[in-house]
Each structure stands twice: as structure tokens, then as C-alpha cells.
Model the fold of this input.
Amino acid sequence: MKRRMIFITTLIVVMVLAIGCGNSNKVVDNGKYNVVATTTLAGDLVKSIAGEHVNVQTLMGPGVDPHLYKASAGDVKLMQGANMVVYNGLHLEGKMGDIFDNLKNSDKLIVAASDDIQEENLIDFVTNPGNYDPHIWFDVSLWKQAAKSVAEGLKKLDSENSEAYDANLEKYLEELDRLDEYIRDRASELPEDKRILVTAHDAFNYFGNAYGFEVKGLQGISTDSEAGTSDVRELANFIVEKEIKAIFVESSVPRKSIEALQEAVKAQGFQVEIGGELYSDSTGDADTDAETYIGTFTSNIDTIVDALK
Ligand SMILES: [Zn+2]
Done:
């Protein structure tokens, strides 16, 4: 009798596995759905809302530049096999557009953090009309909208845990409100004419709009094209003219471009410090305070205000 029970149980397990392998929408590990996120920021957003209820895998590690990231064959397989894929969108993952299109055609649940952000809140590219700046996480109010979109996606995927996702979302939105308040408090320590942020690439326009900073990036919105010598000269002139105390390197962009800018300023007889490293398009390293979106942003605003004060 006992052997028969074991046999039947084994048969059921094998059948469930077989069905699972046949239909990617039913694949679960440890009884949980599998969600794949592209960037560390998207991954952190999913983890913040999902808690322990889903398995989250993130394709890009800390410090990886999403503009230039090319998905490996393994990444594509991972996304194809996942129950849900979460990405930033607005062409942040500039080399992965075709992959997302294919995934959408395969009727997989796929959520872009930027999906439900109202067009009027997006920053238009001056140089490329009709395209929007993808660095939405640098305005906490926009990231709150992204959190809501991810929560909706998770509820669609896993309606059994809907209440948990709603509760986690509510808690997370409160944490984001506190973060927003902290950023405003710290920014207010700087007189208005000192709120000028010079960084390696144009990742901080939403930050500038939301928190009252004038923002200059050496490279454009994407890191795809390198800054030319005229860009460096122009920005060096600006720094000298405004007597800017510090400029910033970014964790996902090689520091040599900002060092070249520092040299160009020096050539004009003015000293500008490198004020520290900002996390632009990814979170900080795992097991550091900057491992999360909230930690990343807290570190950034502290670095910026401390260096410009
Ligand atoms: Zn960027």
C-alpha cells in the first residue's frame, strides 16, 4: 500500500514537471513563480514588492551599463523560461529592444517600469524628439508609479498572493515618500546657486527637475557615443565660469571621461574636485548600504551635497 502511494506521488510529480516544461507560463521553482529583471534597479523594485513570494533573477550586475548591455544566449533563455520579465523601457536597455518585442509576441507577462508613467511627466530628448529620457528612477514620484506597475504585474501573475503584493506596495510607497523627503532635506542644505550637478552622462535630468538642480552630463542620454573634445571644452568653460567645486564620476561609466574634464578645467587655471562616485544606471554592490534603490539614492544625495557644500 505504502509503495503504491509512493509510486502515485512520484507519478504526479513527474506529470507536473512534464506539464511545467511544456508550458513556460506554468514553470515554478520551489512553488514560486520565476521573474527575470534586466537591471539591478528593476530587480530591486520587483524584490521590494514581491518579498519572498517569487524567485527574482537579475541579468545585469551592479556597475553594468544598461545602454550598452547585450543579452547573452543564456539571458535570452532565462527570459524565455521565466513567468514574467520586468525591464525599465524607454530604450534604457538599448541593445535589447528586439528581444522584448519577441517576448511580447510570445504572450509572456512582460512589464516595463516606465509603462504607466504619464507622457507629460517624461523628459523629451531635445536632440531626438519623440524619444524620452529613460532614467526615470531619479525622480522618486516616477519610481512610485513604476512600483505600482510592477505590483499590478505581480498580481496578474500570482493572484493568490494579491493581498501580500498590495500590502508590500503600500509599505514600499511609504518608504519612497520618506526617501523623497530625505533627498529634499539634504538638497536644501545647498544654496540654489550651488545646486549644479556635473556628471559623466546625462542620467540626472529627472533628478534635476525634481530636486532643483541644474544638470550637465559630459556624454549624452546614452553612453553609446563618446564625448568629443568640443563637449569637454564647453563643459570645462561652464565649470570655470560657475566656479563649480566638484564634479562626479559614475559607477557604470569609465572614470576617464570625467578625469579628462578635470584636466581641461585645470588647464584653465581652476581646480575642480572629483566629488565621488554616483550610482547612475545601477545600484551599488551587493552587501553594501547601496545595494537597494533606496540605499543607492541615499548614497548619491549624500555624495552630491557633501561635495558641493
Ligand atoms: Zn544612463
